[in-house]
Write a structure and sequence with these properties.
Number of domains: 1
Order of helices and strands: EEHEEEEEHEEEH
Strand content: 35-45%
Number of helices: 3
Strand order of the largest sheet: 3-1-2-4
Largest sheet: 4 strands, mixed
Number of strands: 10
Low-confidence stretches: none
Distance between the termini: 60 Å
Length: 137
Amino acid sequence: MAGSRRKFRYESDTGAAFVLTLDESNGEAANGGGIRITGNLVGGELNKPSGFTPRYVLAYLQSNPNIRRKFVIGDPAVVVGVTATGNTIQAPVYANADGTVPTPATWVVTSYRGEKIGVSAAASAIDTGLTDGDSPN
């Protein structure tokens, strides 16, 4: 069940700050899920580049393994703690209808996926400078 979407600050492995639009409850729930941006940007953020996929973990609700969620991890400093063997995340299942946040539940992390950055067409067309020996140049 998807909720409202909000902008969050995401720090890449290289230290660049991006703005990601995420499901509000998932973005606020995860450990290091990112800083919610309200109004003006925090400073120095860029729109995420084309082909960029943020790091995330997949987890299931400890009390009901049939309930699963994906949590984007916006802070590289918390990756080690979140991805440790048998680690858990404390996050509410979903917000209540009146907007209040229920008591956090325990989510068991099952897998981690690091961030991916696709290679642009311009970058892949750069001449390597190597010659194959069949012409004078």
